[in-house]
Write a structure and sequence with these properties.
Layout lengths: L8 H9 L3 E8 L1 H5 L3 H11 L2 E8 L3 H7 L9 H8 L4 E9 L1 H9 L12 H5 L8 E3 L3 H11 L13 H4 L2
The structure holds adenosine-5'-diphosphate (ADP).
The site of adenosine-5'-diphosphate (ADP) has 9 residues, from loops.
Length: 169
């Protein structure tokens, strides 16, 4: 009596290590755009090996800023935060890759830039929590939620980079 064994090593490995293909919402905040850090910041995610699936320059309306940061509504800094995020254009990005949510948070560094390690974006380019240059989703669920908030249908593109086999076995 024949039995079918289906063994998918990549799937098993990803379940063990938590290395799932995920998507995250990364945003260069108005200070990052004003300071000319757009290319530098995009470059760090590109060089790491993640896949850009969405990208636009955008002036955030107040209502969207409030929904994006709704978890922080009760904080005393909330009005300042909304003022900051809507103070000028932002660069909205969707990035995809294995473990991209946590990895992007590492590349970005701690919320308070004075605590952020050198080599991280905030560690290298910022000094104040209220001007910390970049946003990154804190969970895969929020990655999906935020990409849905900031991008319209058709603005996120599924594509296969020619170098894909050189980044992931
Ligand atoms: P992160 O952006 O690192 O995920 P949070 O979700 O805690 O951090 O906060 C969201 C954003 O709100 C921060 O990136 C920062 O711009 C702002 N923020 C957080 N705490 C403060 C604070 N104490 N004063 C001013 N702005 C703050």
């Amino acid at each position: 009596h024949a039995r079918t064994h289906i063994f998918l090593p990549h799937l098993v490995a990803s379940m063990v290590t938590g290395e799932q293909v995920e998507e995250t919402y990364i945003m260069i905040k108005p200070d990052g755009v004003q300071r000319g850090l757009v290319g530098e910041i995009i470059s760090r995610f590109e060089k790491k090996g993640f896949k850009l699936t969405g990208l636009k320059l955008f002036q955030c309306p107040q209502e969207l800023a409030e929904v994006h940061y709704e978890e922080l509504k009760s904080k005393s800094f909330f009005p300042k935060l909304i003022g900051y995020i809507t103070s000028g254009p932002v660069v909205c990005m969707a990035w995809e890759g294995v473990g991209v949510v946590a990895s992007a948070r590492k590349l970005i560094g701690s919320t308070n830039p004075l605590d952020a390690a050198p080599g991280t974006i905030r560690g290298d380019f910022a000094v104040q929590t209220g001007r910390n240059v970049v946003h990154g989703s804190d969970s895969p669920e929020n990655g999906k939620r935020e990409i849905g908030l900031w991008f319209k249908e058709g603005e996120v593109i599924q594509w296969t980079p020619a170098i894909a086999p050189w980044l992931k076995e």
